[in-house]
Design brief:
The chain is α+β, with helices and mostly antiparallel strands. It folds into 3 domains: 12-72 and 105-172, Lysozyme (Orthogonal Bundle); 184-254, no CATH class; 268-310, Membrane-bound Lytic Murein Transglycosylase D, Chain A (Roll), CATH 3.10.350. It is 41% helix and 9% strand. It has 12 helices and 8 strands. A hairpin with a 6-residue loop joins strand 1 and strand 2 (97-100). Helix 3 packs across helix 7 (151-161). The longest helix is centred in the N-terminal third of the chain and has 22 residues, at 3-24. 30% of the residues are buried.
Length: 312
């Protein structure tokens, strides 16, 4: 076959392949239409406005056209961390970083929702008006979700250009915010148990159905046990301690045995750098031994940043 003829055939083939690839690209309108119902389900189960979920997905997946979205159903660039499923290697901040690979896009959307709902730094977002997408967009940027200085503006533009705010719901249709679930409330001393009758000056608080107090500068477990008519070893056991240790001001001290699981509306905690299993057990009023068991961890194991700790 003449050289020019071969070259023409090759060029024609490349043009056809190029046209096919272009035809396979998803438009933003198509992407939104495909995933709007999934975003709405996530909003109702996790409390994040559907408009925010969709706008972030559009940005982070290139409207579903990124390699991670196409080959791994990973629409939010979620890295492996303590992931035990399939993975895919992809260049990001560094070459060949590990990313999660999902059998269906819904897994990616769910992990994204949990990433926001169960991380300490994003909990303040859930106290915002769910219809105020602008506050959510700026809140995400302020909390450090993205380094792009225009991130909030880009989200807002997508939401307004494609009227994504029409998919949002009022707070009455959403689960309680993490801060509402964690909210401690003061116990009325007039109806408190007799075991607390010896201290009427200090506030009694309740979290996850368990009574606790906030220790002062000069408190010790021995002095607190005496104050609340408890044995010292009993108070130590309530707080997962084998022996008495110094108490710093502001320490949570439980006055009864902690629960075996967390609140039904707060099933996970994503660890931040430096957090320990003991810290998490005290934060959510869950027994330390149970927390290890739920997470298939050995006593003494500690989570690393990004590790998902099950609370029930």
């Amino acid at each position: 076959m003449p050289f020019l003829a071969r070259k023409l055939i090759l060029l024609t083939t490349l043009l056809v392949l190029s046209g096919t690839l272009l035809a396979q690209r998803i438009t933003r309108e198509e992407y939104i239409k495909t995933y709007k119902d999934l975003a709405i389900r996530q909003m109702k189960s996790h409390g994040i406005p559907a408009s925010i979920i969709l706008a972030q997905a559009c940005l982070e997946s290139g409207d579903g056209n990124s390699r991670l979205a196409r080959e791994a159903n990973n629409h939010f660039g979620i890295k492996c961390h303590n992931w035990t499923g399939e993975t895919i290697l992809h260049d990001d901040d560094e070459k060949n970083e590990c990313f999660r690979k999902y059998s269906h896009p819904e897994g990616s959307f769910t992990d994204h929702s949990e990433f926001l709902r169960y991380r300490e730094r994003y909990k303040i977002l859930f106290d915002l008006d769910p219809l105020d997408y602008k506050a959510w967009a700026h809140g995400l940027k302020s909390a450090g979700y993205a380094t792009n200085p225009d991130y909030a503006r880009l989200l807002i533009k997508i939401i307004e250009d494609y009227r994504l705010y029409l998919f949002d719901s009022s707070s009455s249709e959403l689960p309680p915010s993490p801060s509402q679930v964690e909210n401690e409330y003061e116990i009325d001393m007039r109806v408190a148990s007799d075991v607390y009758q010896f201290s009427l000056a200090r506030k009694l608080l309740n979290r996850n159905g368990i009574t606790f107090i906030i220790a002062g500068e000069r408190d010790s477990y021995s002095s607190l046990a005496k104050e609340y008519n408890l044995f010292t070893r009993e108070l130590l056991r309530f707080n997962d301690l084998n022996s008495e240790v110094p108490i710093s001001e502001g320490t949570i001290v439980y006055l009864e045995r902690k629960r075996e699981r967390g609140d039904k509306d707060l099933s996970k905690h994503i660890a931040e750098s430096g957090e320990t299993m003991y810290y998490i057990s005290q934060k959510y009023a869950i027994r330390l031994s149970t927390l290890y068991k739920i997470n298939n961890m050995k006593k003494g194991d500690e989570p690393f940043a990004g590790y998902e700790i099950k609370l029930r």
